[in-house]
Amino acid sequence: MAPLSVFDQLVLHPFLGDLPTGWLRRPAAHGRPVLRHTGYRLFREESPAEHFWLLRSGIGAGSFVGWSWLSPPYRWTLGAAVAEDCHAIEVDAAPVRLLISADPALGRELTARFLNVMGSRLQAARHRLTELYAYPDHPAGASGPG
């Protein structure tokens, strides 16, 4: 059996799979399948944000890694390393930024999807910090300041 094309993998990906076919073909043209092993450094804080990853397996499968590519100065605000072997679609950010600029409707849709996930992640981080600091005797807070 032939491996799935990047387009086919995006069709099956929960984050983008429901986009209209014409829209989905555009970012697919700028992606490639990758396997990243545990410990692999995806990016370092302050380095240029040149890619993002749509995760197909491993921690966070069905979501993405990377959003600093969306707005100037296009530099990573954090660093990231792979916590568990994963298959992903690595997408070149610069051409996707051009796609977003050229098609405002596509741009709004992609930006909204990224922002929704980012908001959920910030909310989860806030809840985690609340657990750590509000309940220092809780197992999750045992390593917190005290």
Structural features, described:
The chain is an alpha+beta fold. The chain has a single domain, classed as Jelly Rolls (Sandwich), CATH 2.60.120. It is 38% helix and 17% strand. It contains 4 helices and 6 strands, in the order ααββββββαα. The protein has helices spanning 6-11, 21-28, 93-102, 104-134; strands spanning 31-36, 41-43, 51-55, 64-65, 80-81, 86-92. The strands form 2 sheets. It has a 4-stranded antiparallel β-sheet with strand order 1-6-3-4. Strands 2-5 form a two-stranded antiparallel ribbon. A hairpin with an 8-residue loop joins β3 (51-55) and β4. α3 crosses α4 (104-134). The mean pLDDT is 91.
Summed up:
This protein is an alpha+beta fold and about 150 residues long.
Question: At the first level of CATH, what is the class?
Answer: Mainly Beta
CATH architecture: Sandwich
Task: Report the total helices.
Answer: 4
Low-confidence stretches: none
- Structural class determined from secondary elements: alpha+beta
The percent range for helix content is: 25-40%
For the biggest sheet, the summary is:
4 strands, antiparallel
Radius of gyration: 17 Å
**Helix and strand sequence:** HHEEEEEEHH
Structural shape: globular
Number of domains: 1
The number of E-state strands comes to: 6
CATH superfamily: Jelly Rolls
Q: Beta-strand percentage?
A: 15-25%
Overall pLDDT score: 91
Quote the distance from N terminus to C terminus.
57 Å
- The third-level CATH topology is Jelly Rolls
Widest sheet: strand order?
A: 1-6-3-4
InterPro entries: cNMP-bd_dom_sf
Organism: Actinoplanes auranticolor
Protein name: Cyclic nucleotide-binding domain-containing protein
